[in-house]
Amino acid sequence: MTDKPYNTMLNAGVGMINETISLLNMWEPGMSLNELNKVALESGQFPKITARRLRNLLAECIKPRYLRDNGSPAILLKSVQPHFSSHEFKQLLFIFTCRDSQILSDFVQQVYWGAYTSGKQTLSNKAAFTFVVRANQDGKTSKPWSDSTLKRAARYLTASCADFGLLEAGTKTNRKILLFQIEPKVLAILAYELHIRGYGDNRVVNDQEWSLFGLEKDDVAHEFKRLAYRGWWIVQTAADVIRIGWKYQTMEELIDVLIKE
Fold this sequence. Notes:
The protein is mainly alpha-helical. The protein has two domains: 1-180, Orthogonal Bundle (fold of a uncharacterized protein from magnetospirillum magneticum), CATH 1.10.3540; 184-258, Arc Repressor Mutant, subunit A, CATH 1.10.10. Helices cover 57% and strands 7% of the residues. The protein contains twelve helices and four strands; from the N terminus they run ααααααβααβαααββα. The protein has helices at 17-26, 33-43, 51-66, 68-80, 86-100, 102-117, 125-137, 147-163, 184-196, 201-206, 217-227, 251-258, and strands at 122-124, 174-176, 233-238, 241-246. The strands form two sheets. A two-stranded antiparallel ribbon has the order 1-2. Strands 3-4 form a two-stranded antiparallel sheet. Strand 3 and strand 4 (241-246) form a beta hairpin. The longest helix has 17 residues, at 147-163. It is globular, with a radius of gyration of 19 Å. The model has no long low-confidence stretch (mean pLDDT 95).
């Protein structure tokens, strides 16, 4: 994950999990955004969404999150969606969203997990607003934001966390913090993604993306050892060094195993 300027595109997908799933199911490799928009409009599955909102959803949510890298995220999501639980699938959506949205990634790592580890029971829009204001002052936004934009961005952050299961759902200004633990199959997918990128074993367990789930290096190593019984890998540890015997060479091989469990 690399630092990118904060933008307001997060709002396009807020509250649109089911619509996102429908659009991913409609998409096929090689399909352009205009073609997907046409198929979606003709499907009749989005009667409560205006044509403009649908275009924004496609351009600012579906395309940057799931159709990047020749559509590899969408291909992965389409392959597992019929077989994974709703919670597992939302966690995958969460990872891809954080890769596109630096503001959400930083908010989760800095504010959400900060509140969680300090024992707080709730997280408010006010806390999100404080985070956004500081980011704006520090020059992290794509351009200086107005007060109204800052307030909307704060609401989008907590609403997105609710969408993905970190906070309770509903239109609330102060939301209950939920237990949020990475699912084993999601952990396996993220681990193999990092490995297939060419990361060494220690770099895999040290990757910053684990912190989206509140995990540090020792936590990740523990999870690798705990899940070794499933046959996804073989783990050897000595002092601060971890060696992983990866059983599968491609993501397709791993997915084929995961969807059969």
